[in-house]
């Protein structure tokens, strides 16, 4: 078989031993662990957005077709029902989608049985995976590192098949790794986290207003000496600045007067700024802010419309990426003419749309029965090619 490669492939790879890219999202000089901690572990908006996407997508059942025939029982369905001893279908796909949204990359591993047919599937942590590019610019191998040990998954140089399936989001400047929604929302996450830390510090320090120290001596010099000024400045920086020390009370010496200078929350528009950051985080993940009870968003008339938009514009495209990849990477191991699909008829939020589609197709007298069935994703039946 002739080996094919892109005309610009040699520009991407260079030497076969060259490592390209990092094994983690690269923004603001932070690694995957800090991103997962600050972005997912400590930010309630990001945490909820990722859970909405991964849990919703992972809960949808799968259907398998051979041609136009829907199969109720098949070894592939059995494998996906229980991918590995530790996970069922829902937990497996939830993990895969969560990694995709947190890291921009998600890796699946297939373990072959003694009969040459896939026996188990696993999700691999993206921060432990690296890509070795080949001379053509396409991946030559995937290397998984853990506790100082490495395991290499080779890639077939002819057809590109590998025991590892790499799912990634689009990255405009990286040929091998995807860009996480966390990266696009990084500044907004930092602002939202800082606002939460500041609010906590205000409560810890009795929410007292800040101000200025004014030197008003009763006698002697009208200004502080250099030594006095430096000592006071050092004490202020060490003990009364930063979110940890916000609004701590001052112990003043003779000649020093506290003058309040703080703005009120209304003047600072502090709460609104936090809500704006929360809205930007939600939009980066493609989740309507209304679904996370973020105030100030009236794009949709009701929650039901927002939920429909989530499925149409975010979940379904993401899930289609997963299914198209599985149909290329996994399904052919079980035979030709097999096709995996998500059963979107089982999604309550899309039920009204499906019902309207069926009603429109059913009333189309110019279509044959098989044309109507094909329009709703069903196979042909005998005698269904005649107009009645």
Describe this structure in words.
The protein is an alpha+beta fold. It folds into 3 domains: 1-182 and 287-346, no CATH class; 189-271, no CATH class; 351-388, no CATH class. 40% of the residues lie in helices and 16% in strands. The chain contains 13 helices and 11 strands. It has helices at residues 9-13, 32-41, 44-58, 75-81, 89-103, 181-184, 186-204, 226-239, 265-268, 270-285, 303-329, 351-362, 369-375; strands at residues 62-66, 69-71, 105-112, 118-124, 129-133, 139-146, 149-154, 164-168, 211-215, 256-260, 338-342. The strands form 4 sheets. Strands 2-1-11 form a 3-stranded antiparallel β-sheet. It has a 3-stranded antiparallel β-sheet with strand order 4-3-8. A hairpin with a 2-residue loop joins strand 6 and strand 7. The longest helix is centred in the last third of the chain and has 27 residues, at 303-329. It starts with 8 loop residues before the first helix and ends in a 13-residue tail after the last helix. Mean pLDDT is 79; it is low at 1-29.
What key phrases describe this protein's structure?
single chain; 388 residues; alpha+beta; three-stranded antiparallel β-sheet; 40% helix; disordered N terminus
